[in-house]
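Quarterly update from the structural biology core.
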Amino acid sequence: MKTVLINGKIYVERGVFAQAVYAEDGVICSVGTNEEVLAAAGKDAEVIDCGGKTVIPGLNDSHMHLLMIGIGLAQVDIGGVTSIDEMIERVKTFMEEHPEACKNGIHSVGWNQDLFVDDKRIPTRHDLDRISTEIPIVLERVCGHVVTSNTKAIEMLGLGPNSPQYVGGTFEFGPDGYPNGVFTEHACGYVNNTIPSYTLEEYERMFMNAMDYAVAHGITTVQSNDAGTAPVDADTVFKMIHKVYDEGRAKLRYHHQVCFHTPAEFKKYIENGEFKHGDYSHPWLTLGPLKLFKDGSLGGRTGTMRHEYLDDPGNYGVETTSDELMDEFCRMADKAGIQVVTHVIGDKAIADTVGNYERVLRDGKNTLRHGLVHCQITDLPLLERIARDGILAMYQPIFLDYDMHAVISRCGEELSRTSYAFGTLEKLGGFVSYGTDSPVEDCNPFPNLYSAVTRKDKNGWPEGGFFPEECVDVYTAVDAYTAGSAYAEFRENDKGRIKPGFAADLVVLDTDIFTCDPMNIRDILPDITIVGGKVVYQR
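Predicted structure, tokenized:
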């Protein structure tokens, strides 16, 4: 199949643009003027007239949860609620409108107590009992690291005043000595399991809906951590995703990030599982890194810090994987030649994980491209260490939209000044990619790019940007979302640029991202999304 785009402003590299691009069988063959490209394509090509619009490489989200996006689209929306009462009313309304979907339990993600107008507390079982005491109800904080449940869910777990804590997580007790419904980190998984699973067919439908949603926002590749974190076992996730790709129904490229909870489980998959026998002959489906979790979140005050949270004295966060266990995972991955990427928020979690990686570097080089997912709270020496080691930083600039209102009160101004350091790490020569961690944030790349370029929240605050010395220009931001993300999956030589020999993943934009007012970047819409030379979305 031949595809030609003409009359475009086609981004080649910083400051360099072409007029047209020709792709055949999913690969870019020619980039240049209309005349050059049309001559190279010859006859029988599908020609798309861009009408002068800007074309960039397909956007590659370096860390998200695609299946969880699909699940979220099927659940009650509690994102952005400004009070516990509003959250309760939304769930009640959803129950009335979808009684069959709620008959065995309710689960959703999205509340954030810092957005509550008056009472900025974490909801408890007493709040959720106002919705129902007959079915389990589990509502996750937007970060996914704190969960609140009703009394029914607690009863289903068999928890009481004398119950021991879960390893790597906690549940809180109320003044009455009984669990109050608030769970953190690894404990969240236990209470989530009180909600009945969907059928495989339902998960597949949700996965397809999530694909549609992603390509409509210009995403052509997802590096997605569904296996090991979705509310269904990893084997089922692998099987379902293989089925979608084998049947030719996929609309984007999918790169697995796989979470294992024990070294024994990881060993099984290395010796006799997906890492040994998985069929990845489909060019759009690849098996990527081991994904680990080192700590929690800034908003939930569970990210592990070298100093206590200033607004919560005595709290240093929650370590979800011990240093010894991290070392064991990293040694196993190194022996098997498998990349490792780790969720790290706090400066202690980042420093400890860099240490884990350093102990398995090969001749001092990060040849397996181990990475830091989020990499939020840093000081300059830590950034220099990350850059020197060649460790990947998989940033989510959109996190600043909320975090800029919380990080100084939690971590202090000095440390905040060198955190979310997109600009500094680039200047140090670090390897940077962008993603959204969706559904923690919406997977729409353009608010994410806006955050990187302006460092302002959705309301345009602060006027000059949050520590504006860390702003990056549009070229740097687009490159991080394309070429940078391709590097994270070892594809920098055939993906992430509009060049001959590279994958024909392209996005035609309704607005010129390189010349528009930076405040308008967040509102950009894709007109056309192309994956492997095939139009998968057209507005």
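The chain has three domains: 2-58+501-538, 67-192, 294-471.
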